[in-house]
Design a protein that fits this description.
Largest sheet: 3 strands, antiparallel
Oligomer: single chain
Strand order of the largest sheet: 1-2-3
Distance between the termini: 86 Å
Number of strands: 3
Radius of gyration: 27 Å
Helix content: 55-70%
């Protein structure tokens, strides 16, 4: 007599075998059509298995190859697909000036598809898997976009005067009347936070007030150390980052002067959209576009004050400040790989090297005395 556990195990095996048999029968009836095989591949091996974002990318890459193949031959018979077609598509994407990393991503999606097809229908490809042996394109060195010390100093100088840039114009507004939607103390705190922590744009947007230790303006001003805990990064990782003296002061000013005007009891986000904006989200968080626009505007104001073009920073992007933090951290830690990984939330050595490589204008000064 079988136990309940043995019955469940038997049913699981029976169901899996039944699903596999149905899958084999389905694939055996597919026509000699690249479109049909791509559709079944997405349905059986991608959708529900990979994340929606990755699924969308894979579908896009395969549809582009399908369009290329149809244009080249006037049909989509998968049995005629050879290695030369893959190489030709790779060259065509280069002609279209796609980045090497983008081309490699397209080929990776196609390679996974062809491997899957070849494993289920080995006889379909006349000369074997057509993607086998097609090498990836070499990637150019990743150029850092870290700001120099002079640029950081002038950027901080402008941020400390940011309120003046948001004053209303006109005689009736003579004095210190700030535009209704403007939040200069919030924007200043965002810049200092990015320079102090190297957080990604999405990581800053999703910060909550209760992640700051300490949380009150008074405690931040008197503290010798403050940190942000449980920062959610890529790959479901979490890390802790620390706030510099400038960041602690800027964050305290924002919490004291502006955040309470925009927050409700239900809104725990650290950085909030102005309450006067009718279309803001229920949780009050900044949108990705709003975040970008804040930095772009600050970059334009900064450059308008700089006569030397070498001091210009526009277009100012969140990752520029992340690179700046990483480069400074690498200098003070002697490029300690463990500390860089821990604070940046990045495990790829290629990108760690990009963040920590000196910008060209800094590297040029290294050989001045040679």
């Amino acid at each position: 007599m079988k136990t309940a556990a043995e019955k469940v195990q038997y049913l699981d095996k029976f169901t899996a075998r039944k699903v596999q048999d149905d899958k084999i029968q389905l694939l055996a009836t597919l026509p000699d059509s690249l479109d049909a095989w791509i559709t079944q591949y997405l349905h059986l091996a991608v959708i529900g298995v990979r994340s929606p974002a990755v699924t969308q990318k894979i579908a896009l890459h395969l549809s582009r190859f399908l369009d290329y193949f149809r244009t080249a031959y006037g049909h989509d018979r998968i049995s005629t697909c050879l290695k030369r077609d893959i190489v030709s598509w790779q060259k065509q994407m280069q002609v279209e000036c796609l980045a090497h990393s983008t081309i490699n991503n397209h080929l990776a999606s196609l390679s996974s598809f062809c491997t899957w097809v070849h494993s289920h229908a080995p006889q379909l490809f006349p000369a074997g898997d057509p993607t086998k042996g097609v090498g990836e394109l070499g990637l150019p060195p990743l150029e850092p976009r870290a700001l120099g010390e002079d640029q950081v100093r002038s950027l901080k100088n402008l941020c400390d005067r940011l309120e003046r840039f948001h004053l209303r114009k006109g005689r009736k507004h003579i004095g210190s009347v700030v535009q209704a939607h403007a939040r200069p103390w919030r924007d200043r705190a965002i810049v200092y936070l990015l320079l102090s922590t190297g957080l990604r744009r999405e990581e800053v947007i999703h910060l909550d007030l209760d992640q700051i230790e300490p949380q009150t303006p008074e405690a931040l001003r008197s503290a010798h150390k403050a940190k942000i805990t449980r920062v959610k990064g890529k790959g479901k990782t979490e890390r802790t980052v620390f706030l510099s003296a400038d960041a602690r002061q800027a964050l305290a000013d924002y919490l004291e002067r502006e955040r309470s005007r925009d927050a409700t009891a239900e809104q725990g986000a650290l950085f909030l959209t102005s309450a006067s904006i009718a279309v803001r989200t229920p949780d009050g968080r900044l949108s990705l576009r709003a975040f970008n626009l804040i930095l772009e505007q600050i970059g334009r104001w900064h450059d308008a004050e700089q006569r030397d073009p070498l001091r210009h920073i526009s277009p100012l992007r969140p990752h520029d400040l992340r690179h700046t933090f990483a480069f400074q951290l690498a200098k003070v830690t002697g490029a300690d790989a463990y500390e860089l990984e821990r604070r940046l939330g990045h495990r790829s050595q290629r990108y760690i090297q990009r963040y920590t490589n000196p910008p060209e204008h800094v590297a040029a000064t290294y050989i001045e005395g040679f």
